Hints:
two-stranded antiparallel sheet; globular; ADP-ribosylation fold; alpha+beta
Amino acid sequence: MILYRPVGTEELKLIEESGYRRFPPRLPDQPIFYPVLNEEYAIRIASKWNAVYNPDHKGYVTRFEVEDDYVSRYETHVVGSSLHEELWVPSEELEEFNDHITGKIEITQSFEN
Length: 113
């Protein structure tokens, strides 16, 4: 399954340090990792949230693929309009989730405000 993740510069640096293969652990106040199911939603978050509220005013959209059999264990959550579809991966499962990413995490969009 192809998924997208809007990120800021700090998270992107950690992804880069992994060779574009893994997402970094969540912070203590972040109980879930939520990749989104479509690029349009990821663009909205990266451009209207990350690029506005992050200290450097930059936001990025990443695209990656996760093994279908593995990712099917996670329920899709709609958090607004039908466009706002996310998977909710508990933070404690992120390392295992990362193990099922196929290929590299790529940057598809970047925004600066």
